[in-house]
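anyone seen this seq b4? input:
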Amino acid sequence: MNGSRTGARPATSPFVDFDRPSWAKLGANTPLPLTAEELERVRSLGDAVDLDEVREVYLPLSRLLTLHVQEGGRLYRAYRTFLGANTARTPFVIGIAGSVSVGKSTTARLLRLLLARWPQHPRVELITTDGFLLPNAELEQRGLMTRKGFPESYDRRALLRFITEVKAGRTEVSAPVYSHLSYDIVPGERFTVHRPDILLVEGLNVLQPAHSQQGREGGAGLAVSDFIDFSVYVDAATVDIRRWYVERFLRLRETAFRNPESFFRRYAALDEAGAIARAESIWAEINGPNLERNIKPTRGRASLVLRKGPDHNVTGIRLRKL
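predicted toks r here
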């Protein structure tokens, strides 16, 4: 594997590092199946990704993921022959992790679009773990509203049940729906995945290992990460992510926060200095600690890390060796 190394990582490292030009060469002969209009529809607020970055970063990544899916198919066929069974292949699950405001949602939506354009696997679906957050009323009851996004604010049992049913090969598996406008679970609404070829699961904590469980043989149970076939961590310096969060808060203050149904409508009336102060406070009390304590420690568990620079553009890629 010939990557251009960006640091003094020893030859015995289990990772290989690419700078962006070296990584881009891996997709040089692959047509770009995406238009500027389609990119605009999947790009998150404040994310600076353009068609050049799609061509140089995400297109090679979609090609790599396709290779993994194809090899998984070959292994499945050999496994089926070995067992003498006729069970159908289950979805290939890709986990997308990273901090608030780092751009993981854009990464997930882009990969879904690109992967669906490969003829080998036209059925690609995406789900976010936001739907498995506990409802606000329950978070309030448990005293967890100021820890929303922390691992304990999710219905981890329901999330694990969802992913195990997907990997068990169930025809349909449904999940709750989350509204970023109301900042809460939508009562009675469900999102259903229909046995796709590939399922992307995007969320803050999808790479969390199993928590120790007293009294259980082996000391720990299962986690969502145990059922992920390939994982991507979107990374950047904390100081940059913090700045992006504040900038996004200011943009939302001028747009979504003005909606009368928005949970954050009270922030729309803040002047710029007040909005910056409030965003900084939320970061310091919630998002920053969650990143440092829970999200960033899972970075080393990822199959691939996309490293972003201060301008939000991907500057390097770290890939775990096979």
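The chain has one domain: 28-320. The first strand starts at residue 15 and ends at 19. kinda curious what u guys think
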